[in-house]
Amino acid sequence: MQPAPIKPEITFDDFAKLDIRVGTITDVNEVAKSDKLMKLTVDFGDHTRSILAGIKQERDNPKEIEGKQALFVVNLPERKMAGELSQGMLFDIGYEDKLQPCLACPENDIPNGARAG
Q1: DSSP 63
Q2: 2, 7, 58, 117: which has the highest count of C-beta atoms within 10 A?
Q3: What is the rounded distance in angstroms from the CA atom of residue 73 to the CA atom of residue 32?
Q4: pLDDT in tens, the chain (117 residues)
Q5: Are 89 and 20 in contact (CB under 8 A)?
Q6: Concatenated DSSP letters for 88-115?
Q7: Which residues pair with 25 in a beta bridge?
Q8: CA end-to-end span of the chain, whole Å?
Q9: Architecture of the domain whose range is 24-110
Q10: Are 60 and 101 in contact (CB under 8 A)?
Q11: SS3 at position 14
């Protein structure tokens, strides 16, 4: 693999605006009107969110990520896609480099809602 060029420099203040948190994926369901999206139900400790992720074609069995902790961006505006509402974004690794994507996740169990950074 040839790594992609590094994106333009940002300020620390720009980075600090991102709210990235650990959540446990409790349920993974198909989105009827989409060939790519799956609906993840994610437990963030004090609340649960629905997050749409384009993982349907990336994995033989998208439900295999149920029960796993992963990182999510939680302060993006809610967005409607394929008739469903997404309340954040899954942080995964590999897709942009055309690799088999994998979850960005903590190495140990950590409380849901813990912040990255």
Answers
A1: G
A2: 58
A3: 24
A4: 888 899 999 999 999 999 999 999 999 999 999 999 999 999 999 999 999 999 998 888 999 999 999 999 999 999 999 999 999 999 989 878 888 889 999 999 999 999 998
A5: no
A6: SEE-EESGGGTS--EE---SS---TTPB
A7: 42
A8: 27
A9: Beta Barrel (2.40)
A10: no
A11: helix
Phi/psi zone of residue 52: left (φ > 0), alpha (ψ -120 to 50 degrees), beta? Answer: beta
CA gap 114, 80 in Å, rounded? 26
- Supply 63's token pair: 């439900």
Rounded to the nearest 5°, which phi and psi values hold at 43?
-90, 120
**Tokens at residue 2, please?**
């040839």
Structural domain boundaries in the chain: 24-110
With H, G, I as helix, E, B as strand and everything else as coil, classify residue 15: helix
